Amino acid sequence: MDVHTLTRDLQVQNDSKIVMLVADGLGGLPMTAGGKTELETAATPHLDRIAGTAIQGASIPVLPGISPGSGPGHLGLFGYDPLSYQIGRGALEATGIGFELQANDVAIRCNFCTLDGDGNIADRRAGRIASEDSRPLVEKLSENISITGIEVFVQPVKEHRFVVVFRGPDLGGNVSDTDPQRTGVPPLDPVADDEASAKTAEVAKEFLKQAGTILADEPKANFHTMRGFAAKPALPTYKDVYGLRAAAIAVYPMYKGLARLVGMDIVGSAQTLQEQIDTLRDNWTNYDFFFIHFKYTDSTGEDGDFDGKVKRIEEFDAILPQVEALGPEVLIVTGDHSTPSFMKNHSWHPVPTMLASCRCRPDGNTAFNESTCIRGGLGQFEAKHLMTLALANANRLGKYGA
């Protein structure tokens, strides 16, 4: 039986509130053998205090040894098997900025990049170009690129990111990324992974060709890469499978997009963590479930900035008393994947996860980090089971069977 068939049958309605705080890329590694991780290094008095009455463990986003993207990582947290429900990053990004995808659309997440004189990538993110600088470039692409027989939509996202949507017949979403994930080499060509996506690959090549001419004289963002080619997915909603009125409070569009695809309302327009907590407080009576996404533990890890990630974890810890003051029946702290500064990338390592409620069985830990999670009462578990644990601790699941 599919778990969502079960949760549909066992739903119990009450007034309980569930808050899921996701520190993106939370898990880490020591920079030197025998050292501490970022989470172990950070001063986290509130997380450690909560640990005393909570249960914790290490969640596996997909499968042991598999390093997930943000899409699969969040799908698992939301209770959707990431091996059964696959969403390309382009669909997440497009939906996150409010673009209404249609059945014959293919969406692509694009990153401005910097090419050197030899056509090799010198900076994969064009120096993380500011939004006010990237928006005019997106407008130039939108106004000047034309591809016969295809509607082309080009929309800004944030900083170096933008979205391209191709609309037309016979477009498939299985095309390889053009970002080689390293510098000193040229961008890759878009290659179709199946016959149904061959036309999409050719359209993408033409888009890149025209974009290269349009951006050639730009000092930083003189080209772009294409990632996460994706058609519109179909997912059951939180209301349907869990009986929850769910809200998402996120800054970055991609995470808003994923939340919207599973039926969450996007509330507020917060740009800082404090504004996110203010939005939570303002909407407390309107929803049963709140997903709050904090990006910067991931981006500092990707930059290899160990000290920066430590500071971001401490910033995240500092807001916890404000969340606790609202009195959620269930409070979850976790990440969608690990992003060790040591590796400068997403990794397969299990993610520190903690659940606090009056119905949990505390495991005796008095701190929250990778080392304590190994000894936690939840053990190592697949992230897709976190939502059923949340529902049970909120007293929102009835008994299965006679």
Tell me what you see in this structure.
The chain is α/β, with parallel strands linked by helices and 402 residues long. The chain has two domains: 244 residues, Alkaline Phosphatase, subunit A; 140 residues, no CATH class. The protein is 32% helix and 19% strand. The protein has 15 helices and 13 strands. An eight-stranded mixed beta sheet has the order 9-8-10-1-11-12-2-13, sandwiched between helices. Strands 3, 4, 5, 6 and 7 form a five-stranded antiparallel beta sheet that branches. Helix 5 packs across helix 9, helix 6 crosses helix 7 and helix 11 packs antiparallel against helix 12. It starts with a helix and ends in a 9-residue tail after the last helix.
Order of helices and strands: HEHHEHHEEHEEHEHEHEHEHHHEEHEH
**Main sheet strand line-up:** 9-8-10-1-11-12-2-13
| β-strand number | 13
Give Rg in angstroms: 21 Å
Approximate shape? globular
CATH class category of the largest domain: Alpha Beta
Outline the low-pLDDT stretches. Answer: none
Euclidean distance between termini CA atoms: 17 Å
- Domain count: the total is 2
Class derived from helix and strand content:
alpha/beta
The assigned CATH architecture of the largest domain is 3-Layer(aba) Sandwich
Overall pLDDT level: 96
The fraction of residues assigned to DSSP E strands is: 15-25%
Helix residue percentage: 25-40%
- Give the helix tally: 15
Largest sheet: 8 strands, mixed
CATH superfamily of the largest domain: Alkaline Phosphatase, subunit A
CATH topology heading of the largest domain: Alkaline Phosphatase, subunit A
